[in-house]
Amino acid sequence: MKELHTGSLFWPTTLNSPAEYPRITSNKKVKVAIVGGGMSGIICGYILTQSGIDAAMLERESVASGSTSASTGLLQYSNDIMLCKLADQIGEYDAARFYRGCLDAVRQLGEVAAALPVDVNFIPRSSLYYATSEQDLPILRKEYELLRKHGFDVSFLEADDISRQFPFRKPGAIMAQGDAEVNPFQFVQGVSTAAAKAGLQIYEHTDIVKHEQSADGRQILWTADGFEIEAEHVIFAIGYEPEELRGQLVKADINRSFAAVTGVQDEAKLRANWPGHCLIWETARPYLYLRTTIDGRIVVGGLDEMREAPIESEKLRRKRTDKLLEKITALFPMLDQPLEFEWSATFGESNDNLPFIGVDPKMSGVYYCLGYGGNGTVYSMMAANMLRDMINGEEHPLASIVRLDRPSLLKI
Predict the structure, then answer these.
(1) What are the residue boundaries of the FAD dependent oxidoreductase domain, all occurrences included (predicted)?
(2) Is residue 191 domain-resident?
(3) Is residue 297 part of a domain?
């Protein structure tokens, strides 16, 4: 099994006693089996159970122990690919529909968080998306105009506007409403508790080692301990572990990124220099992104590299994360607390910058929920609704855009 992250993670330190679930100790029969107990698997399980569908979720380690723990918890409807570039790729109509679907997913994540019995630090935020250089200004203006055209709540900030509100100057920026932040570890733990209470069967330390489809189309899963799970449908929500995939994903890349969290900043300085605690990111690719936490820390990420394995060496990781700290200092020199947590993590990307959601083109009853890209949690919410509809025999309006054999992949 490949490591999905290395280093010192922040989010697991914010929850003292996560819930524990049993391993499978007998054969099971359910309507839907979900393989993977991270953000994607838990949200799928929650939505299916809320819809009255008998489901079981199978996690080989513990809930939220994989990529979820390494998430930075930014929830944005804007994607790694700009709306204007996505419009060139799949057409303006579908691109705008997909962006609206992401906005709806952020809103629905807020509704799920509000219904939980625990506070998972879900807070609506605006996002500042700034031009890294003067050369990026024309495309940023084009993006702003297209977002406005399709009804998104955005405003454009000129360089002087930015410098009046922030302690830095950039050529221009889009300020978008409708985004949010969350504690991803607490969110998954809270959703898993609510889903289990509603009837989702959750099994930890249950490693699925074999999957076959029977002659009558039923899905048969075997655990490493020799138990059998029979299901009408199986959803693979296994994050960024592509060696586990049953089907063939077209042109998916697995890379690594870096993130860090500072110590608690001076509250007055933070409030005076970071308006509205907005999310911040930039037009450069790979991009820098920042947010704050409820206790006044800064979360920063970026410096993506085209290597699959996260860096084991603390010294080599610190060389990267120290660069992230330098970028914080360049933007906010008065926020000078050192890094207290730093990590490297694996993440997936598709070559058309869209997630993989839907049925296996070669095997009916087998579905994938793979939120590849920078909006994994948002994609997970979208996928849960989509897969529920598919399992119920219904059409979902966005399914054609993210299906595994979509035309946009074949053009690249």
Answers:
(1) 31-389
(2) yes
(3) yes
CATH number of domain containing 264: 3.30.9.10
Q: Which of 329, 349, 369 is the last residue of a domain?
A: 349
Same-domain pairing of 201 and 236: yes
242 shares its domain with 358: yes
| Residue 23 near residue 225, CB atoms below 8 Å | yes
Strand blocks (E) in 27-171: 28-35, 55-58, 74-75, 123-130, 154-158
Q: What residue numbers bound the domain in which 315 lies?
A: 253-349
Can you tell me the distance from the alpha carbon of 220 to that of 44, in angstroms, rounded to the nearest whole number?
20
Phi, psi of 281, deg, nearest 5: -150, 180
Spatial contact of 303 and 320, defined as CB atoms under 8 Å apart: yes
What is the domain-level CATH number for residue 40? 3.50.50.60
- Residues for the chain: how many in total? 412
Q: Which pTM was predicted?
A: 0.95
**CA trace torsion 355, 361, 362, 364 (10° rounding):** 100
Q: Indicate the number of domains in the chain.
A: 2
Closest to 188 in 3D by CA, of 390, 384, 349, 7: 384
Question: What tens digit of pLDDT does each residue of 243-274 get?
Answer: 445 445 555 677 788 999 999 999 999 999 99
Q: Which pLDDT belongs to residue 311?
A: 74
Residue 351: is it exposed, middle or buried by C-beta count within 10 angstroms (0-12/13-18/19+)? middle
Helices within 150-216 (DSSP H only): 159-165, 184-198
Please check whether residue 261 lies inside any domain of the structure: yes
Q: Is 107 exposed, middle or buried (0-12, 13-18, 19+ CB in 10 A)?
A: middle
276-335 pLDDT, tens digit per residue, is: 999 999 999 989 999 999 999 999 999 876 676 777 777 888 888 999 999 999 999 999
Of residues 67, 15, 19, 20, the one with CA closest to residue 41: 67
C-alpha 337, offset from chain centre: 27
Q: What is the CA radius of gyration of the chain?
A: 21
Q: Is the peptide bond before 138 cis (omega within 30 degrees of 0)?
A: no
